[in-house]
Structure prediction request, 876 residues.
Amino acid sequence: MSAQSVHSPEPRTGILRRYIFSADHKVIGLQYFFLALVAVTIGTILSLLMRMHLVWPAAHLPFVAGGIMTPEQYLALVTMHGTIMVFFVLSTVPQAGFGNYFLPIQIGAPDMAFPRLNMLSFWLTLLAFLVLLAAFFVPGGAPISGWTAYPPLSGLGEVTGPGEGTGQLLWVAGVLIFCIASLLGSINFISTTIDMRASGMTLMRMPLTVWAWFVTAILSLLAFAVLFAGGILLVLDRVAETSFFLPAGLVVNGELQMRGGGSPLLWQHLFWFFGHPEVYIAILPGMGAVSHILANFSRKPVFGYRAMAFALCAIGFLGFLVWGHHMFVSGMNPYSGLTFSLLTVSIGVPSAVKTFNWLGTLWGGRIRLQSPMLFAIGFVSFFVTGGLSGIFLAQPAVDTELHATYYVVAHFHIVMGVAAIFGIFAATHYWFPKMFGRRMNETLAKLHFWITFPGVYCIFMPMHFIGIEGGVRRYADSTGANFLAALQPLHLFITIAAFITATAQLVFFYNFFRSLRKGEPATENPWDATTLEWATASPPPLDNFGGHFPSVYRGPYEYSVPGAAQDFTPQHLESEQTHAD
Amino acid sequence: MMKKRVGDTGEGLIAKWPVLAPKQALKVTFLALFCTLAVAVLAGRAAGQGCAMCYQNAAASGAAGREALRHGILVLLIPAVSFFLGVFALIYRRRNATRLRS
Amino acid sequence: MRTNLETMAAHGSSAAVPQRAYVTGMVLALGGIGMFFTALVSAWIVRRGLSNGDWQPIEFPRILWLNTAILLASSVALARSRHWLIAGREADYRHWWGVATILGALFLSGQILAWRQLRAARIFLAANPASSFFYVFTVAHALHVVGGIAALVVIALRRPRHLSRQTSTQVAALYWHFMGALWLMIFALLLVK
Prediction:
């Protein structure tokens, strides 16, 4: 089957249409990426303020109104740090950022199925971000109920604390807008994957990144719909005096709240039904990218491609069944706890399959230890470390002790705040040449990796001990209790490590922005890779393939095929072009 | 070394479940069942003690409340899981469809 | 504004989005919308079960029976309209499409009347959880119906350029029938004391 070779001239458009109000999936992907860069900077600054306060509770800190941070201000930092990072970094870059850019190209399509809808998704996401950030600037400031926004704290308005007035309302509004943006994005991703594949691109020839984006989009579609419903009910409780989540007889700050017999448990169920798939939304694209990169830099096919694809589906599926493990201490029936516990540990099975298959991919390969590979291997390391602590938390009896301690904070930061971020770093270094036509500096990249890798272990490993010792999460100041004050040296160590590691990220920023202008020009396929994004120019033309849409003749990871001309056999080359004769 | 044909997706490298003789399979099944039951029986002590308000709320509601929570959970779960599987059924049905051809 | 795909299509490149993708997209959208209402149903079940006495079933506005009939009739009209489109009878297609649209608008007016009746009986949003859910379900559904009517009007004006008429009417019909089915479920739920 010959490729369509119709010349497609690029239309003349102004800067506004080409780079700002564009429906081109590549531009949109980059818009999400840069939005997330801003978000991660803000989120990191917030976390550093938190770390400083934990170690020096009486210090005057920058950005803090009034100088010395109050416990409520600390909680506002906790809330906004979590919300910004989970939504605008981890639910944005891996899926909406890289997915938007590379899904159409990897399946040989000229764009997403619904480009204008795609554009709308981005602008809604940006609006959501601005609405959320506005919470910092309203009277009362940002909300204090955590990214989980449990009522009654989040449902009664100003009476429950500073930031719970307009701040919380803006938080909910921002999240609701984000839900819509995600829903629209998911529709695009799924339709594109089902209906826009190039000739020869069967399901079992799709790169694992495509599988990951596909499963993630289904999770997104179902989970964000439920969060949207919960958010609407919360808004009504706040502004219309309904009682979906607010129990009767509450006395807050001396005031009796006149509400009916609502249930805070109801919010928890609705929120965590979203919240658990959400963390898989954050990690699955990273898993896909890691498989993709490990194969490339080991010069070997992904070990057990089919199993990897099924494992992605299994993790996604099981991810819907386990939300109760966030609620083990809510007074649930122990047999419900058992069910959620068994289902949770069963996610360990496909996760283990993936981990062993990553190792199997590396085993015996001709390893090229370049920066994308370093970050991909780092991902595997952190996924194992973070995943193992999850197994402990999945036991209700153990979780009774560890719930709401720093053990949990360690667990989710290592899987989300580190592993997923390393997935983003790996993908950035890997795809930078394709997106921008230039190479990132390899020395700076390695420097960044070798400081960050031990740095994040130094930050998050001690938190396990703090948690086991009883260090409670979301506490602004633990120095009042002797047994917790004894842990302050660990906190100091963590804070110092955090500052060093955060500073090291400047190396990444410098490398990234400098390379945009001064990086070594990149060829079409600098990594000798097999998938379709490497079969076109760097950066790709407007329609991705300059009119010559590829057909696909083989699987995505045909590295080191015996008898082939090179140690990689691109997907789009016909057989005659691949043999050494 | 197995000669790989063009079009192979590396399936030769996939690990396969070992094929067990019927007696062995029965043993493994019983072992798995025993372990599950053991864990189930030992779960009784797993009652949590955390959020007092949540516990009071749930305890005060009685049997109707517990039923309601159970049904509410099922109503969330079953449509979500069905739709999830449905999307896979859809993509499987369209597995040979490409952009320019049904 | 033009997308890459349209620019390329204009230049003769075979870069079109297959029509079936729009149907896929609508099915997925309905899945998301369905999940949203499912979450509300779950909340209804839990809130009702945990209510400990403050759940007071409301007086069911009789006009809702009429509204239900109107909405179902509009679905039938829309199905007829598509039948005539496929048969090539342009005038009949447009006639029944118009009927469906008008019936949809009539349904909405009927809903507004129902809300007015409840307000007259002093049953407001926050009166008790049963009334809260009544308003949440009916308003959420009505907002989606507004979107549906807007789509029916847009299609009647022959606006969507990148969808064939066959596809645009199919997609609109899917949405509209789903709204009807959704209403039946909500109606049944609200009838439960």
Remarks:
- Chain C touches chain B at residues 14, 17-18, 20, 24, 27-28, 31, 34-35, 38-39, 41-43, 45-50, 52 (CB under 8 Å).
- Chain C has a mean pLDDT of 91.
